[in-house]
Write a structure and sequence with these properties.
alpha/beta, Rossmann fold, two-stranded parallel sheet, binds coenzyme A
Length: 266
């Protein structure tokens, strides 16, 4: 689907997107490419990255891929250097790589908890830390993909809640530390979003989907295009004075819930 923004807002820019091989990260990368940016898609599975890059290229965009695990600092650092060599300094960084599985705390091993913390929180740290040298200039922008888990306790999601709370505070701390370099850092907090792996797992039947929609003031799921347009806005000059913000794009869902159990939605 086309963007609501008409002009090419990112001509000459260079974007690096972790989690860019699928879902929300993929659509954000597509949007950046439509608006003139070169994009590098990073993620664990080369075949997913290749398919996503092919879609961008078939629409006339410029895309490269880097297969990596964001838990591996050296791999992230090497991928960013490769991107810099190929497309020049990096202007836009999206930290979208994430892992999730539903489990109560007592059904989760220490290693299971650590896996999600390592992918979501340490992975965001690794990506930002390694990208700093390439981002350090006015106009550069970091976007972390968070979740309402960061401020709403959700049963069976303790690992994600802890990780995303960390992602929000890490990103807002970067806004302070890197602001003097001209680097902005913001979070996007999606709600239930159509056509994503997370929602296929959490709302697998029409009945559950209906129940989730009834818990959203706008009474519908969000779309990946809406999140992509928000990301486009945040990394464009239209948001030149916005940093350290957490943009909740969830149809109002988090306004009406102070806690949530995954089993409630089932
Ligand atoms: N319930 C309980 N524990 C689970 C689990 C589940 N459903 N799935 C994985 N784990 C545990 C494993 O048992 C293991 O712990 P152990 O060594 O004590 O047995 C630990 O998590 C790591 O599992 P591993 O298979 O090595 O996966 P990983 O380290 O590569 O981590 C996950 C990846 C676990 C986060 C995986 O679920 C994932 O990547 N999911 C797909 C991504 C996704 O959900 N994206 C949408 C994000 S919103």
């Amino acid at each position: 689907m086309a963007s609501v923004f008409r002009d090419h807002l990112l001509t000459g820019k260079n974007a690096f997107v972790t989690g860019g091989g699928s879902g929300i990260g993929q659509r954000m990368a597509e949007r950046f490419a439509e608006h003139g940016a070169s994009v590098t898609l990073a993620g664990r599975k080369q075949e997913k990255l290749d398919a996503a890059a092919a879609i961008i290229r078939s629409s006339g965009g410029t895309a490269a891929t880097c297969a990596l695990d964001v838990r591996d600092y050296a791999a992230v650092e090497a991928a960013l250097q490769k991107t810099r060599d190929q497309f020049g300094e990096i202007d836009i960084l999206v930290c979208g790589a994430a892992g999730n599985f539903p489990a109560p705390v007592v059904g989760m091993s220490a290693n299971g908890f650590k896996s999600v913390i390592d992918i979501d929180l340490l992975g965001t740290f690794n990506t930002c830390r390694a990208a700093y040298a390439h981002l350090r200039k006015p106009g550069a922008s970091v976007i972390s993909i968070s979740a309402s888990h960061a401020f709403i306790p959700i049963a069976h999601q303790a690992h994600v809640c802890a990780a995303k709370a960390g992602v929000d505070l890490l990103t807002r701390t970067l806004a302070i530390e890197w602001g003097p370099d001209g680097i902005r850092a913001n979070c996007i907090t999606p709600g239930p979003t159509d056509d994503t792996e997370g929602m296929r797992r959490l709302a697998p039947t029409p009945e559950i989907r209906h129940r989730v929609e009834q818990g959203v003031p706008l009474r519908r799921f969000g779309t990946k295009d809406e999140l992509a347009d928000l990301a486009l806005f945040l990394c464009s000059n239209a948001a030149a004075y916005i940093t350290g913000a957490v943009y909740v794009c969830d149809g109002g869902q988090s306004l009406v819930r102070s806690s949530l159990s995954l089993t409630e939605t089932h």
